[in-house]
Write a structure and sequence with these properties.
By secondary structure, the chain is α/β, with parallel strands linked by helices. The chain folds into two domains: 223 residues, TIM Barrel (Alpha-Beta Barrel), CATH 3.20.20.70; 69 residues, Up-down Bundle (Four Helix Bundle (Hemerythrin (Met), subunit A)). The chain is built from 17 helices and ten strands. Strands 1, 2, 3, 4, 5, 7, 9 and 10 form an eight-stranded parallel beta sheet that branches. Strands 6-8 form a two-stranded parallel sheet. Helix 10 links the parallel strand 9 and strand 10. It starts with 6 loop residues before the first helix and ends in a 7-residue tail after the last helix. The C terminus is likely disordered. This is tRNA-dihydrouridine(20/20a) synthase. Pfam families: Dus. Its cofactor is FMN.
Amino acid sequence: MMDWTDRHCRSLHRLVSRHAWLYTEMVTTGALLYGDVARHLAFTPGEAPVALQLGGSEPGDLARSAKLGEQWGYDEINLNCGCPSERVQRGAFGACLMKEPQLVADCVKAMRDAVSIPVTVKHRIGVDAVEDYAFVRDFVGTVADAGCEVFIVHARNAILKGLSPKENREIPPLKYDYAYRLKRDFPHLEISINGGIKTLDEVEEHLKHVDGVMLGREAYHNPYVLAEVDTRFYGATTPVPAREDIEAGLIEYARTELARGTYLGAVTRHALGLYRGEAGARGWRRVLSDSKRLAKGDLGIFDEARSHLRDGVEAIEA
């Protein structure tokens, strides 16, 4: 979710669900050790609980980066072993690491020695043409021996050559049964599943077999899908938030960010799907994407966007 799940995105999602665990976009060790740490790690306390996802393959660098994450207040450090992009491959991390389970184990151990918060791993089920379940089983077993207790399984292979990152999220077939088998083979581990999940009914079905479910693209493009998460899965007794209440909270958040000099579009771009499926949603998106209006930092843009919803002049979109 690089360039997607930044702090503004997470602040929106936290308005929708108080209890869902949120993850940062992947941050490389180089960006933290040689770049602007505050730009990559600063977040508001209201986002918590939030996990910092790291990209890297050198145990010492990952340990230092994990320590920074702990110091900045993150609740978990997650090592990305699933991203297939060429940029990540050039850095010899992401999905490439699945070919080197002992190196991943060394990285996990180094991070666990450096921090007191949980260290987790997100990974694919295979790489390129390797589709045997034994591959991912042995990967998880080796990394678990280093002390990792939580694995987030994107239930597709990563094709390192020939497919774009977008295609890697769509073309390799989903094999949810591999994640289910991992839970059966490692009942003492926490296994979560990711990939192609769009509804809370699907989430509920997966939870019959694994411990957790991660939503990525669906939660981004349709954030209101999270609205019933707290009551349905966390036993919350608070009312399910209405879209209008979420919007009101986002406006107050945007007001605070404008006072800090933040470009309004950096906030609104994450809310384009808030009214997905509602009459007038296209007008809402169009207005909140108007760069000229956004450059003025005028929060009245929300009123104009909302007018399309009130008028209901468009057909309900899927």
